[in-house]
Amino acid sequence: MKLATVATQLAPMPMQAPGPPITWNPFRVASTMSSYFAKPLEFVGEHFDRYGDIFQLRLGPGRFFFSRSPEHFHEVLVKKADSFSKGQRSGNVFREGLVALDGDIWRESARAVQPHFSRSAVEGQFETMRRLTRSLLDTCQPGVSVELDQLIARLTLDIVCQTLLAQQMDQNLLDRLLLQLDVVERSVDSFDPIPLWVPTRRHLEFARAFREIDRAVNELVRREQRSEQHTLLSDLVKTMPIHSRRNARKIRDQITALYFGGYRTSAHALVWIWYLLSEHPEVEQKLQEEVDLTLAGKEPTVEDLPRLKYVSAVVTESLRLRSPSHLVERVAKNDVQIGQFTIPAGSEVFLHIYWMQHDPRWYPEPNRFLPERRIESGPAYCPFGIGKRQCIAKGFAIQEISLAVAMMAQRFRVKIAPGFMPDPQTLITYGLRPPVPATLVPRQRTNGRCPVARGVVSAAQSV
Ligand code: HEM
Fold first, then answer.
1. From the CA of 265, how far away is ligand 1's center (Å)?
2. What are the sequence ranges of the domains in the chain?
3. How many A from CA of 161 to the centre of ligand 1?
4. DSSP H or E segment with residue 426
5. Less Cβ around it within 10 Å: N or C end of the chain?
6. How far apart are alpha carbons 84 and 104 in whole angstroms?
7. How much distance in Å is there from the Cα of 326 to the middle of ligand 1?
8. Which of 320, 300, 318 is nearest to 308 (CA)?
9. Comparing 259-263, 301-305, 396-400, 406-410, which segment has the lowest mean pLDDT?
């Protein structure tokens, strides 16, 4: 017998991934969908408990695979990445933005955008990030109740706008954009089976919001054309001259997708961090001691950030415990084998970051917030994805988040309103459902030891 034949016989046969039986019954399909929509994380977590690291749902003609295995992440996103495309659903929101594109069009757009996220470009954006964080903190009135989510969303949207487009947005436009981007995310869920052209109430709301966003972004693009500055937008216009309507649309989509992807994820990350700190005063105290000792009352510089090791540990652990991207989605272009399982062409694959990062095999006591744990970057830790389609702005996001945490911790304690019940919201991104009421309580630096953090001082006492 030939060696190759023996090898083939010994190789494990591809298998079907486990999962509930296929159903064609429209009521069962609808009931499965509504169970998913009602509690997406719990639904998926219970299926992992029942079936193991991978399971499939077969709903009529649709085939959906969910995995929490680091090996599967590596195979789908790195080793066999060419066998998968991004899929239609992300296209609904990101349209012709980088995050939704495939093949040569993606490569071409990535080439235009990447230089703006290089290490030196991101360091060059540090001063703008610091200025915007400072102005936001200057406007915060001590002791006055604020909606933390709104405050932070304004900051991260403003940062995307002023670093990548060098444009100052007036407050009114910023608020309108925030409102509409919020509607877009709420109206389209990554598991919605109804095509967008069907005029459901959610889809009509979605179309209305996008019309407003397009109007605002077109206005920014028009303004940018008159400006002399070298920005991401001016580079896009160079690669795609704007006089064709198609190019104008592509540019608008790139900018909208950057807004959406850029402000929302970082905003959720920051709100989660302040919520977790408010729940863990001992961690908050260590963080304050580090910023006090290391910065000695000065604002952080770009050189200071790598020295703030505990700030970095807090950010890393928060992105493990509460990753704003809870999953990444792909569609199999052809039949492909992942581990010992066959994924048929056309199937949708959901790689579940949240559940992988909550797996006790990789993280003992996975539900505890422990910045002291050693986290290795690798397939079991990937809040920014992995492979060639991982987050283009990972360095940008880490810099803006760490800077905002350090600057806020220098000046304030964030006290979440007593009685606030955290209600996580799992849409395209994973965040706390707004509003998140909080009070900013000023704090004093005292030789690296902060009295406010040692005992719980009420807002009224310290204001
Ligand atoms: C905590 C903050 C952030 C998290 C957790 C995050 C997460 C991710 C993830 C998981 C992906 C990969 C999606 C996939 O493989 O399908 C991604 C892609 C992307 N992200 Fe981020 N992101 C963050 C911040 C940002 C920011 C601030 C920007 C822009 C200013 C941004 C722009 C993008 C873009 C353009 C892509 C698509 C890259 C490509 O497909 O080539 N992200 N992000």
1. 8
2. 3-462
3. 16
4. strand 424-426
5. N
6. 14
7. 12
8. 300
9. 259-263
